[in-house]
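Dear U.,

Please find below the material for section 3 of the report. The protein was modelled together with flavin mononucleotide; I have listed the sequence and SMILES used, followed by the predicted complex structure.
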Amino acid sequence: MGNSFSDLRREYRHVALHEEDVCDDPIEQFQDWFRQAVELDVPLPNAMTLATATKDGKPTARYVLLKDVSEKGFSFYTHSVSVKGQQVAENPDVALVFYWSQMHRQVRIEGRAYQLSDKESDAYFNTRPYDSRLAVWVADQSSIVESREFLESRMSGIEKQYPGERVPRPDTWVGYRVMPAAMEFWQGRESRLHDRLLYTRDNDKWRLVRLAP
Ligand SMILES: Cc1cc2nc3c(=O)[nH]c(=O)nc-3n(C[C@H](O)[C@H](O)[C@H](O)COP(=O)(O)O)c2cc1C
């Protein structure tokens, strides 16, 4: 297989997405596509757009990194005091979007976000590099700061406060898991008749339909 992205793009134009070839469970289907994206060295395959909204529906969106996916859902980590954290607290309905351009693939997810337990957030926090653990103490995410110098001097203060490897997790740095209610897999096709398969959850069962491109 050619390694260059243009070769990859060319190959994926001939890939089709048929109802009979996909998994019954969309999370397994996602894991399959994600594995392929990793194997093909797609840059930042775990970068996903996270859309949240206020209680009255005013949306905001930003990228975050997917850190785990299992039958329980899709997890990411952030600050609960940030704009997204505040919005999830007042309105747990969120959307996620992945785009793997070299594979002509998009995955859209809609569902509810739940905060992870302290134990789960601690477990992931403790795997992060020292600098990343320090940095979360510098200031509340999304708060207005007076200058770059303010951040740098806070960072050196925090470094002095936690000189060893032991840096505690602030209570406001937490994980969230998105439990999907709908997931759409989009495969771009050469003909412009792109494939779109949508799974929606109906109690404990997933229903699969095809959407017009
Ligand atoms: C590729 C990429 C990955 C990111 N991953 C995260 C992440 O995992 N967690 C996070 O809090 N911010 C992440 N950010 C920063 C967010 O996009 C955003 O700037 C920040 O979380 C504040 O968002 P908010 O004010 O809407 O809450 C990432 C940014 C980029 C470009």
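For the text of the report, you could mention the following: DSSP finds six helices and nine strands in the chain.

Regards,
Y.
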